[in-house]
Amino acid sequence: MDTLHALLFAILQGATELFPVSSLGHAVIVPALLRWPIDLGAPGFLPFLVMLHVGTATALLLYFRADWLAMFFGVLGRREAAENAAQRGLLARLIVATLPAVLIGFTLKKPLEHLFANPLAAALFLMANAGLLWLGELLRRAGTKRSAELTYLDALIIGCYQCLAFLPGISRSGATIVGGLARGISHEAAARFTFLMGTPVIFAAAVLEVPKLVHGHLLHALFGPALLAAVAAGVVAYASTAFLMRYFRNHDVWALSPFAWYCLLAGALSAAAFAFGA
Predict the structure, then answer these.
(1) Cα 141 to chain centroid, rounded
(2) Other CB atoms within 10 Å distance of the CB of residue 31
(3) Rounded to an integer, what distance in angstroms lies between the CA atom of residue 93 and that of residue 95?
(4) What global pTM score does this model have?
(5) CA distance linking residue 100 with residue 161, whole number of Å
(6) pLDDT at 115
(7) Terminus of the chain with fewer CB atoms < 10 Å: N or C?
(8) 102 contacts: CB under 8 Å, gap ≥ 6
(9) DSSP of 184-230, one letter per residue?
(10) By C-alpha distance, which of 26, 91, 32, 20 is closest to 52?
(11) Do the Cβ atoms of 169 and 22 come closer than 8 Å?
(12) What pLDDT shows up at residue 41?
């Protein structure tokens, strides 16, 4: 992969990772539609994508640095007793929400790997993602809870929703926001919880995949472009996060609907193009 394609991937990933439209699905579909000379099944492709996710996770860490610092000081007991308890509870719920993805990911990673290089499957799942987002709006309650008021059961259920994103075309952020809406929190609170829980998940994926760049002569071929692309993805992701948090705060009634329409149309057009050989 040359530097130009690496940067294009960075912009694509940084713009779609946090929007509820599936960055993985777009990473599979867009190169196929544009006929980029990239082998999606190559050993270095998934590690390269994970490097982009490292950039995204770093952007999330910076954007929500106040939240992470509050949890850090809460664990150390540096605040008032009630605040310490609240921050420890939030951190514990984030850990609980992460567990399903860790456990199920180890189980399903190998069986689902063939889908990562299948553009038609990604396009069909992108259409399914539209249905998931509309379902979230149907399940939406009044949104009276804050993310800090989620129970451990709420966190576990949201974490189970996140596991849907193992299918390329199903958005991780979209699935977890839907899970949050189903448990009674607002779009903004669901997005905040989603982005907070996404940070350790993405970093954990990097721990598993980035070392593969070192093997099989991938370091020399991919690490330089991947590192540059990770920085670019982080910049785009930071801007995306700032936009989305404002967007969800100001559009709590129908926030997911525009993304659902986009996924339905993009998925349907892409599926038609792949099915009829366009």
Answers:
(1) 23
(2) 20
(3) 5
(4) 0.88
(5) 9
(6) 62
(7) C
(8) 201, 204
(9) TB-HHHHHHHHHHHHHHHHHHHHHHHGGGGGSTTHIIIIIHHHHHHH
(10) 26
(11) yes
(12) 65
Nearest to 89 by CA among 75, 101, 109, 107: 75
DSSP 145: B
Integer Cα distance of 223 and 44 in angstroms: 10
Tell me whether residue 11 is exposed, middle or buried, using C-beta atoms within 10 angstroms of its C-beta: 0 to 12, 13 to 18, 19 or more: middle
Cβ(202)–Cβ(13) under 8 Å? no
Radius of gyration from C-alpha coordinates of the chain: 18
For residue 201, give both structure tokens.
């998940």
Note the pLDDT tens digit of each residue in 223-239. Answer: 667 788 889 999 999 99
> Rounded mean pLDDT of 26-39?
82
Tokens 């993602």 correspond to: 129
Q: What does the pLDDT look like over 142-154, one tens digit per residue?
A: 656 777 778 999 9
Residue 118 tokens read as 């299948």
